[in-house]
Amino acid sequence: VRRVDEFDFDAPIERAVAHTRDWLASLRERPVTPARTAQELVARFDTPLPETGLPGGEVVDALAERVGPGLVGMPGGRFFGLVIGGTHPAALAADWLVSAWDQNALLRGLTPGVATAEQEAGRWLLDLLGLPAESTVGFATGATMANFTGLAAARSAVLARAGWDLEADGLSGAPRVRVVVGRERHESVDLALRYLGLGRPLVVDADEQGRIDPGALHRELAGAQAPTIVCLQAGNLHSGAFDPFGEAIAAARRHGAWVHVDGAFGLWAAASPALEHLTAAVAGADSWATDAHKTLNVPYDCGIAIVADPGAARTAMGMRSSYLMPDPAGDPHEGVPELSRRARGVPVWAALRSLGRSGVADLVERLAARAAELAEGIRRIDGAEVLNDVVWSQASVSFGSDDRTREVTRRLLDSGEAWMSGSRWRDRAVLRVSVSNWSTDDSDIRRTLAALADAARVSS
Ligand SMILES: *Cc1c(COP(=O)(O)O)cnc(C)c1O
């Protein structure tokens, strides 16, 4: 016998809205760091699975009560760790609708509503980022899987050009695919190559900002003739730097290579007239990976895989099956590794519609301006040195010795005022500053700089 409560959506939804309001309102003042560690939280969860159920509204309360103390102020304006966006109001609400609508977004004909919204979001993205209008746009979980998608299309295409049918014959016995990357590519590229059975890439040198050296790339490519993929980067994790796309793509083209660009957070510079010089010539590549959950500030998870040749994307990711009712115009699953998935492109549509073209330009310019302000303020702190040219949204800072840099990082995190992660760059311990949140404002910058100055003062 079903209890009446099982059909009641109202109570759980109302409780979720209440908890959401509390959480969002707390972001401004709450410590950015969580109140409890994972070990401490285990005690709250450590019970056998109860024999009987609980009404939905009470489940939501119980969950919020248990998880709350372990939440980090990640969507707030003083979170500068990793590369983490917050969420725009319209994108958050759209994401809720995606869950409520509960559409499996793999087929156009099956779920025309969300499929069309995603298609429109894809069209807007290509326009905004200045990429070829006929490209396939796939909504994957993140840039890792978007890199995987682009590199999978690349693998099939370069092998096909060498006379090898990867889809039919697999990798065993295939000509070796040469993959060339810059020294400072993001390691998710290596991970994607591992998933693809392509092994370790050939690494060419980069300059002091981490940009691939196009001369070194040319020399590397001039060696043996082989099916070749060149992977470039828009937005270096430590410096924010962009590879010199014009020269690097020209070098790759001379040797018949496929060019893939990891632009997880950097590709968005193309959306700003003031910053698009950073991505100049990037449209000449064959595939691009980016994230919407970083610079665009939609909720997790949302990566975007773009492949200029729709046939190449379909060859690598497509699947034909009679029960799937394929649409002659192509289906969303042909641009991503997954079949079943949520319509994660819908919040992208909402964010873009909410911001408009000028709003996206303003967003990316603001992130870069905030990063420059932070770097400027940090330079005034005794003993602090900003190691990179702050051209985009990232900065890497040393406070002298590696030990002191680590100590300042620890003290900053202990303060709960702002969140920045430690890392290593150019053989030094650094404090990494990533400005990726749409809501970071003047007071967030002031508080963060004051907390950093404090952390640096007490440790020398
Ligand atoms: C974040 C990031 C990735 C990985 O993206 P996910 O969304 O975490 O999968 C890849 N490349 C770069 C440059 C990144 O910043």
What is this structure's SSE topology?
Layout: H1 10-26, H2 38-45, H3 56-67, H4 89-101, H5 112-129, E1 136-140, H6 143-161, H7 166-169, E2 178-182, H8 187-195, E3 202-204, H9 214-221, E4 228-233, H10 245-254, E5 258-262, E6 287-291, E7 303-307, H11 310-317, H12 346-379, E8 385-386, E9 394-398, H13 402-415, E10 421-425, E11 428-434, H14 442-457
Parallel strand pairs: 2-3, 2-4, 4-5, 5-6
Antiparallel strand pairs: 1-7, 6-7, 8-9, 9-11, 10-11
Residues 83, 142-144, 186, 188, 235, 237, 262, 264-265, 291, 303 line the site of pyridoxal-5'-phosphate (PLP).
How would you portray this structure in words?
- By secondary structure, the chain is of the alpha/beta class.
- 41% of the residues lie in helices and 12% in strands.
- It contains 14 helices and eleven strands.
- The protein has helices spanning 10-26, 38-45, 56-67, 89-101, 112-129, 143-161, 166-169, 187-195, 214-221, 245-254, 310-317, 346-379, 402-415, 442-457; strands at 136-140, 178-182, 202-204, 228-233, 258-262, 287-291, 303-307, 385-386, 394-398, 421-425, 428-434.
- A seven-stranded mixed sheet has the order 1-7-6-5-4-2-3, sandwiched between helices. Strands 8-9-11-10 form a four-stranded antiparallel sheet, covered by helices on one side.
- Helix 10 links the parallel strand 4 (228-233) and strand 5 (258-262).
- The longest helix is centred in the last third of the chain and has 34 residues, at 346-379.
- The relative contact order is 0.15.
- Bound molecules: pyridoxal-5'-phosphate.
- Pyridoxal-5'-phosphate is lined by residues 83, 142-144, 186, 188, 235, 237, 262, 264-265, 291, 303.
